Amino acid sequence: MNRLLVTAVAAALAFNVSAQSVPEGEKMISYGRYESAAKALEPLAAKDAKANYLLGIAQLEQDNVTAAQATFAKFPDDFYNQAGTARVLFQQGKRDEAAKILLTIIDKAKKKEWEKYKAAADAITYTEGGNITDAINWYKKAIEINPEDANLQLNMGDAYLKMAGGGGEAMSAYQRAETKGTINSLTYSRIGSLWYRAQRYEDALKSYDQAKNADPSNPLPYQDLARAYQRAGNYTKALENIEKFIQLSDKSIDDQITYANLLFLSKKYPEAKAKIEELIGLGVTKAYLYRLIAYSAYETKDYQKALQNMHTFYSKQDPNKIIPDDYVYSGKIMAALAVQDTMQAKMYNDSATYFFDKVVTADTAKDKRALYLQIAEAFKESKDYLKAGAWYGKIVEANPDASAEDYFYWGYWTYIGKDYAGASKAFQALRTKYPDEPSGVYWSARVAAAMDSDAKTGAAVPMYKDWLAINKEGYTRKDADLMLAYQYIAYYYYNSNNEKDATEWVDKILALEPGNKFASDIKKYYADKKAAGSTPKRGR
User: Fold this and answer.
1) Which of 51, 70, 297, 445 has its CA 20 to 30 A from that of 514?
2) Quick check: pTM over 0.90?
3) Are the CB atoms for 487 and 507 separated by under 8 Å?
């Protein structure tokens, strides 16, 4: 082969590498493989402005803002890199400066320069702080010029998702991208996530499978599937898919944290804790690693370790990035320590209350039942039953359509906490809301009997009789509950010198439990009374 031909072949190969590597780098970015993208783009970035821009994007996605800023500055007159600089400014909170750069790019766009509109719109869509309406309008302008580009439709769908109520427009944009057929692994993945948000789970799983089939090298559908299966409680499938995701991903620190997260969500707490400790051992010091260790330690009942790591987490975490679950777990840890350290139980339970009150303020969800339920369960486990009952009461208070079960536990745990007046109020509310629910009648009687433990007033008698008269299909009474009712009523009539009625209820006790000492003693008292022909001194 002569030198001229060798030179020509080398030039062709160099051109081919460049032509393939820039799109490959862009593809790796879209697949969340930022380390791979940077490796593909670094050899090209010195001479190729687009490659340099994409390298900066990969650096931004790895939270290396300083490096990205320096990268974009290497091509100050290139609109792509100017848009990259705008992204940096948005991340630095310099919104006005960023917006000014983007408007300059748009103002200089000529009739056919659709890429300028896309670069400016992307800067807003994939950072925070810009005007999302501007981004959507710029995508529309770019699509007018280049209607066949699938990425424009995909990115516009992502922009719509940042708008309140934009899900429908986002779906339409993704479906238009799908018709182009060039990036269907990404479009199917996005469509699947929208179906999942709409609780159309079969459609979501179908779309995720289509995303996998469209490009088996795309790790994102496996991550989406893992999350979907986790939420559905199918942890075996969740782990199967997250392991496939890890296999296809860059195995970056963030990817491994994602894996640890799913191990935790899949209730593999020791494995999650071990994985995070491994990452910390490698020198990774991100705050949320300590969050995960604390959560996992709580779930494995290592409460002191949980407490220690929550303290470390709070010391490292940006206060603006604390989430409601952080306060929930802090409260649960404190409630658990109250059981372990009875000498300081009050201090720990007070601390639990402090964190639970914080989470109620921090949680913006309209329906807080799930949150209140977690808190009630934590106090139940710490044996602070009054607080458990109080949080069930909050569930009822916040929800006019609260279930009979919520009303019941409001009363039950308040009763167990020996606040009989509060329990009476709760069970009366249950009877009012659900008059056909037998438990409301029975427990109203139980509470009344607890308040009249010597059976002097008979306040529980009519309630117990109402309960015994209930004839509801499918409802059966437990022998233990019947025994409590019979004994209270018999004792009341005995105290009231009503031998006839007392004997009737004593006989019911003996029919249920022959030889019952309480009933036998009353029987003997009346027999002795008749034999003696006088009234001996009574006693139970």
Assistant:
1) 445
2) no
3) no
